[in-house]
DNA sequence: CCGTTCGTTCTCCATCAGAGAACAGCAATC
DNA sequence: GATTGCTGTTCTCTGATGGAGAACGAACGG
């Protein structure tokens, strides 16, 4: 059905469980009957899965409707805080945001995508919690690009093949050759810019967070083009990010 | 095994999946063989589950070891931000923490336990991220008590039966009768105190967050007994909490 | 170069996940 | 207040599949 790469070596029950979880998430408040219809299973089967999940707190029933349970938050919080970059970079996040006055972000990559681990927006212009915890494609994002630039070429190829290079704006890099040039530029300079490639009217700079020769994440500052111009990205903001990245690199190495 | 309440109406594969997830969490970096031993399953079975999870990002392999994947963080973040109290109370959290100078907490309950949804500690004395996302028993916690006080008696009984009244310190309430007196007192006053009942040398006050007659959570301030004395709890801190709770109650009602 | 240990794949069988029907609980309708 | 029409839950049955165990292959170290 949805996931196919499992082939014959996966566990089908797990697949259905994940489908149910995803359907509960999408619905946010849904009954057994409707849920069963959404995942193409018998009511009884869905009910069994839900009961099991309920016993473990992954799902709760509020006014007759199933919702994801806080156990997910528990596991999620654990997962975030055990990312080495997270604890290493968290203090810097706060500082950079308040010093520069612009939104500041921490990202990691996994499976060819990046995720915002956390962010601060001193101006409260951006809903930080809407972005934190969400996946982004790497090619249209300063953090993603700076991470890509530090991966092996074979990995980059895999990622491009798997996720493509979709256009977010008309500035987005959409072909492999241009991407490679850009990544080369990033490697030379040691930082990545994003000039309206992800969102119109949004610029950003990112530096890599490196531990033992491998990229563990990226730190970036982003803001509207009228405040965050290219010169500022490559000047004040970059300086601040680089200083933080050096510190973080040290603390990652212990 | 671990979860038994499922009886015959649960899905056994899901139980094993959850066991594997939990084992991966506990180990934080573990191979198939060791994992299989920890959950008492054949290597091949564990491997199949891990493959399926990997396809969905719930698990990742880093240097030959399995870890929980950021997909958990994604679901967790979603779960937290869709809790109505969370977005309603988040701004207040920040404000109260900076105004009072003491650690401030937001909790909700689920399945007879409370969880810290978020917290702020202006003094950086407490590792906030270690508490956020963790479950706590309700009876030894100001937030837990104030929530308990607003539940139906049958619910309180269930909770006490299920989770007991374990002693955290020698001030902890450990019998049902004393708890009932305390809850009655909390209902009369409209707030709950915690005077060294959870941790020695730690006091706290909490107020309930109520929406349409039902408790959705609690807001609390906590600190070391030498700074956060009972008088301060029932004075300045309580005033601040009550003001915030009123606002939040309104915004919960839209 | 061989022995060990890991992860992965394969095959086979008893179990159990899933379907479907029946039952129960609740609301609204007449 | 009986009836209808929805739910969620429980039951029973059966074919598919999860789990065991063995075999394979890769990585490592002596």
TrEMBL record, chains A, B:
This is IclR family transcriptional regulator. GO terms for biological process: negative regulation of DNA-templated transcription. It comes from the Archaea. SMART domains: HTH_ICLR (SM00346). InterPro entries: ArsR-like_HTH (IPR011991), GAF-like_dom_sf (IPR029016), HTH_MetabolicPath_Reg (IPR050707), Tscrpt_reg_IclR_C (IPR014757), Tscrpt_reg_IclR_N (IPR005471), WH-like_DNA-bd_sf (IPR036388), WH_DNA-bd_sf (IPR036390). Coiled coil: none annotated. The keyword Transcription regulation applies.
């Amino acid at each position: 059905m949805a996931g196919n790469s499992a082939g014959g070596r996966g566990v089908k029950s797990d697949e259905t469980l994940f489908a149910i979880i995803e359907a509960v998430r999408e619905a946010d408040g849904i009954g057994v009957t409707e849920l069963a219809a959404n995942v193409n299973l018998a009511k009884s089967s869905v009910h069994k899965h839900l009961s099991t999940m309920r016993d473990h707190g992954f799902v709760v029933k509020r006014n007759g409707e199933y919702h994801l349970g806080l156990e997910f938050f528990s596991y999620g919080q654990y997962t975030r805080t055990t990312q080495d970059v997270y604890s290493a970079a968290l203090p810097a996040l706060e500082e950079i945001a308040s010093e520069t006055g612009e939104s500041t972000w921490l990202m990691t990559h996994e499976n060819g995508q990046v995720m915002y681990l956390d962010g601060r927006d001193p101006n409260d212009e951006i809903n930080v919690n809407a972005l934190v915890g969400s996946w982004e494609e790497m090619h249209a994002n300063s953090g993603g690009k700076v991470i890509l630039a530090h991966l092996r070429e074979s990995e980059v190829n895999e990622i491009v093949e798997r996720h493509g290079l979709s256009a977010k704006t008309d500035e987005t890099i959409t072909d492999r050759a241009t991407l490679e040039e850009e990544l080369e530029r990033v490697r030379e300079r040691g930082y990545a810019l994003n000039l309206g490639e992800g969102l119109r009217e949004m610029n950003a700079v990112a530096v890599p967070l490196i531990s033992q020769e491998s990229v563990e994440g990226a730190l970036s500052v982003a803001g509207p083009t009228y405040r965050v111009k290219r010169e500022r990205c490559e000047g004040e903001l970059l300086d601040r990010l680089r200083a933080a990245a050096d510190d973080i690199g040290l603390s990652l190495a212990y």
